[in-house]
C-alpha cells in the first residue's frame, strides 16, 4: 500500500479539546501528515503552547478559543475556521470532554449538565456545524468521535454521567454515519481504555494509595499489559480520517489493549 494514502495535504482538520493529552497528540499526528490544524479548547494558555509546538514543526495551525458545549461559540468556530483557511474543514475530531467521579444518586443537575454539555451535546454541535458546510458545499469529510470503553461496558467508580455520555457518543456515531453516507462524510469513533494523559496522571497522583489498587485492577483487565498512550489514539484517528479508511464508516473502534474483548471469565493464560 502506498504511503501517500495516509497523507492529509490540503485538508483542514478541526480538533476539539486540542490543548492537552489526546487532543495534542492528534494535532501533532494529523499536522505531520500535512493537514492544517484548527485547534480549539477553552484553555488559551495551553493553546498558545500547542501553537508553538506545531509551528516548530512547520505545521500550519490556527488556534481558536471555544467552548464545545456553547452553541454560539461552536457556530463562530466554523465561521472563523473558514475565514482563516479559505476552506471548508474536511476533518473533525470530537475530543473535548468533561469527567466526573460521583455516585449516580449523588449527581446534581449541574454536574449532569456539565458532563452532557461538553461530552455529548458538544459533539453534536460540532458535528452539526461541520456537516452543514460540508454537505452544502459537497465536500467529502471524515469525523472521528473520541468515545471510551465506558460507552460499551459499565465501569462504575462514579463514572455514571461520563459513561452515559459516551454511550450516546457511540450511537450518535452510528446515526451520523448512516445519515451522511450519501454525502460522502464518514463518521467513526474510537474507544480508548485508560490513557496516560497529564490529566490522568494528576488523578492517579491525587488518589495516592487508592490509585495503586485501581491501577493493578485496570492492568489485570488489559491483556497487552499497559494503559494507552495519547499517540496510540492519535494513530487510530489518523487512519480513520485518511483515504486508507475510505470504506469504513459507522465503526466504533476500541484502542484498548484488548480490554473490551477480555470477558469477566477470562484469564491471561494461567491455566
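-> sequence recovered:
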Amino acid at each position: 500500500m502506498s504511503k501517500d494514502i495516509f497523507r492529509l495535504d490540503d485538508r483542514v482538520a478541526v480538533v476539539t479539546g486540542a490543548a492537552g493529552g489526546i487532543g495534542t497528540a492528534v494535532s501533532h499526528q494529523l499536522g505531520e501528515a500535512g493537514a492544517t490544524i484548527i485547534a480549539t479548547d477553552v484553555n488559551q494558555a495551553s493553546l498558545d503552547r500547542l501553537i508553538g509546538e506545531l509551528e516548530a514543526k512547520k505545521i500550519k495551525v490556527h488556534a481558536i478559543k471555544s467552548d464545545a458545549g456553547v452553541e454560539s461559540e461552536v457556530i463562530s468556530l466554523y465561521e472563523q475556521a473558514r475565514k482563516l483557511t479559505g476552506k471548508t474543514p474536511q476533518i473533525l475530531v470530537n475530543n473535548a470532554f468533561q469527567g466526573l467521579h460521583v455516585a449516580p444518586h449523588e449527581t446534581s443537575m449541574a454536574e449532569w449538565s456539565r458532563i452532557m454539555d461538553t461530552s455529548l451535546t458538544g459533539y453534536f454541535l460540532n458535528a452539526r456545524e461541520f456537516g452543514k458546510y460540508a454537505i452544502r458545499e459537497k465536500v467529502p469529510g471524515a469525523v472521528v468521535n473520541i468515545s471510551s470503553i465506558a460507552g460499551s461496558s459499565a465501569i462504575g467508580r462514579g463514572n455514571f454521567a461520563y459513561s452515559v455520555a459516551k454511550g450516546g457518543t457511540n450511537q450518535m456515531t452510528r446515526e451520523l454515519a448512516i445519515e451522511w453516507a450519501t454525502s460522502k462524510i464518514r463518521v467513526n469513533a474510537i474507544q480508548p481504555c485508560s490513557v496516560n494523559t497529564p490529566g490522568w496522571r494528576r488523578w492517579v497522583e491525587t488518589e495516592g494509595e487508592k490509585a495503586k489498587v485501581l491501577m493493578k485492577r485496570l492492568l489485570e483487565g488489559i491483556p497487552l499489559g499497559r494503559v494507552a498512550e495519547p499517540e496510540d489514539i492519535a494513530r487510530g484517528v489518523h487512519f480513520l480520517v485518511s483515504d486508507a479508511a475510505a470504506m469504513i464508516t459507522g465503526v466504533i473502534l476500541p484502542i484498548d489493549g484488548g480490554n473490551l474483548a477480555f470477558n469477566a471469565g477470562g484469564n491471561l493464560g494461567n491455566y
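Residues 3-193+228-255 form a domain with the Rossmann fold fold (CATH 3.40.50.720).
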